[in-house]
Structures are given as structure tokens and as C-alpha cells.
């Protein structure tokens, strides 16, 4: 048997379909890789040394008792200088003195919930901010730390941390306030 040869180009459409399928498959793989890499790209865009914003700012540190005697009472007043209200039960605080994390346990910023928690290094949490469900802008709150915790010349840092965040630890800090104590 002889095969017929044709001059009409009897190749068919298979190479065109194969090329389109390869292009579609390549685009799908690129989309999947991009979806997996996007969170890491966002992390790389943020400078690692960028400090969190200051939402709850240290306004003052009181060293005097009610009689006016200098006893290093270590009463820290914070003020919400941000533009949003913070739901107190969603946040906790870490306290650093001279860049050393202190064993001061503040598991919630809600004063009513704070009373029943295991807290160490702090006596009381009160003020218009912590007493309410939300700590609204311009409201103050007071951390009454154990006496003699903070002294003049200390560098006090308070980090407010989101209890619900599941991202890396440095991005859980929603507010950082630093003050040199006089």
C-alpha cells in the first residue's frame, strides 16, 4: 500500500491546542505560586526595624505617694492618643525597663477582667480607658506597678499586644510607647 501525500497541510489543530493548554497551565501555576508567596512579600516590604505606632502613650510616671513623699510609687499613666477605640479584652501589655522585659503580667487591659486574673508586678489597673469595654481616644488608664519598679533614669517601654493575632510576634505589637523617666 502506498501512502498518499497531500500538499494541503493535513497537520490538524493539535499543536495549537497543546500550546494553549501549556500557556493556561503555566498561568495557573504562576497564580498559585504568587498566592503562596504574597504574605512573605508583604513581610519583606516592611522594614524589620520599623517600630510599631504609639497608640497608648506613656503620659506620666508618678514617684510620689498621697502624702507627697518620694517613694517611687511607679504609677504609670497611659493615654489613647490614637484615632480608634481599643477593645480592652483583646489586648495585653508587656513592660520593659532599660530594654529588659519585666516579670509584670498584664493579660488584659480590661479592669474588671484584670481583677480576677493572675497578675504579678502590678497592683491595680484603673482609669476611664480600662474601666470601659473600649479604651476610647483621649481616655487615660493607670498601671499601678509594684512600688520601686521604676526609678529616675530608667527607660520605660510598654508594648500593647494583640491577644488574637496569629502572625509573627513582631507584628502582634500594635502600640509601643517609650519614655525616659525623670
TrEMBL record:
Residue ranges that the Swiss-Prot or TrEMBL entry lists as coiled coil: none
Keywords recorded for this protein, A-Z: Membrane, Transmembrane, Transmembrane helix
Keyword Transmembrane (UniProt): yes
Pfam families noted in UniProt: Pilin_N
Keyword Transmembrane: yes
Matches recorded under NCBIfam families: arch_flag_Nterm
Record's protein name: Archaeal Type IV pilin N-terminal domain-containing protein
Organism, as annotated: Methanocorpusculum parvum
Organism taxonomic ancestry: Archaea, Methanobacteriati, Methanobacteriota, Stenosarchaea group, Methanomicrobia
